[in-house]
Design brief:
This protein has about 70 residues and is an alpha+beta fold. The protein has one domain. The chain is about 25% helix and about 40% strand. It has one helix at about 15-30; strands spanning about 1-10, 35-45, 50-60. The chain has a 3-stranded antiparallel sheet with strand order 1-3-2, covered by helices on one side. The two termini are about 10 Å apart.
Length: about 70
């Protein structure tokens, strides 16, 4: 099994709108059939620049899926 990880820091002023967008984006990514599952995880870290940090982890059977 492979994990494709994306980590992103979101400005707090657009945090709620981004959550709506990313949930839809994750559904679209899963609909491609290339990934088995996905997890959206808030990273508990305080960045110097502020914002909220998330990790999106997509799982796949093989590297060819990427």
């Amino acid at each position: 099994m492979y994990i494709y990880n994306v980590t992103i820091n979101i400005d707090e002023t657009i945090h709620q709108e981004w959550l709506v967008w990313i949930e839809n984006h994750i559904r679209e990514m899963l609909a491609t059939g290339r990934f088995l599952s996905a997890r959206l995880i808030q990273v508990l870290v305080e960045e110097e620049t502020g914002g909220v940090t998330y990790s999106i982890q997509y799982t796949a059977d093989s590297r060819k899926s990427f």
